[in-house]
Amino acid sequence: MKAAFYSSSFETVKYWQKVFTEANTLLASEEELRALLLDDPSVPIIVDYDNVAQSINKMLQDDEIIENLIVLERQPNINTGKMLIRRGVKAYGNARMLNIHFEQLLDTVNDGKVWMYPALMQAMIAESEKKATLPDIELLNRLTDKEQEITLLILEALSNDAISRRLGITIRTVKAHISSIFGKLHVNDRLALVILLK
Q: What confidence tens digit (pLDDT) does each residue in 50-104 have?
């Protein structure tokens, strides 16, 4: 099964090469990752989150699409997993899993489905069964329709750049709307806005 590995750790890449017997692509930089995504956007990208989290988080925050992103780390964390799955990651698990689990993971992702280790899956199911909390509607009614739209994107943790691209407006316009939102809701920053509305 073809896949690409993105890591700055030689040790991790060597381990993954042993686990996957077929020929695979090794990526050592964000530039190489972007080039591969332009050339073959559907290839599964297996990411060593312990070593390249900052690069991946920035891409996710900027709402960049990575079709088959698989994130692995040495000590998987349920909260990290939930955040990544919500951001569109197709699989999250242990970087040192057994070969049989790697194969299941890749088969699942290649079938267009999401793969999670059992504890993460249980946590996601339990969370979805809870009643979803909506932002405070009364506070949102103080805002214009565009400001409400931007506020909901802020609550999804999108950056100004990502909001700009999503809505087809300039970053300057996004910033102007955010300043207006802060003024109308009497908050000073994004964190205060999230706390107020959640």
A: 999 988 888 888 877 788 999 999 999 999 998 899 888 999 999 888 888 888 9
Indicate which CATH number applies to the domain containing 24. Answer: 3.40.50.2300
Spatial separation of the C-alpha atoms in residues 119 and 138, rounded to whole Å: 37
Domain total in the chain: 2
pTM higher than 0.70: no
Q: Which residues pair with 47 in a beta bridge?
A: 6, 71
Last residue of a domain, one of 129, 158, 183: 129
Are residue 23 and residue 104 in the same domain, yes or no?
yes
Structure tokens at 30: 């964000």
Specify which of 18-32, 85-99, 120-134, 162-176 reaches the highest per-range mean pLDDT. 162-176
Write out the residue range of the structural domain in which residue 125 sits.
4-129
- Which SS3 state, helix, strand or coil, does residue 4 take? strand
Closest CA relative to residue 150, chosen from 192, 186, 188, 193: 193
Question: How far is 159 from 166, CA to CA, in rounded Å?
Answer: 10
* Contacts of residue 31, Cβ cutoff 8 Å, sequence gap at least 6: none
Which of residues 80, 103, 129 is at a domain's end? Answer: 129
Residue 144 and residue 193 share a domain: yes
With the C-alpha atoms ordered 59, 62, 64, 68, is the resulting torsion angle positive or negative? positive
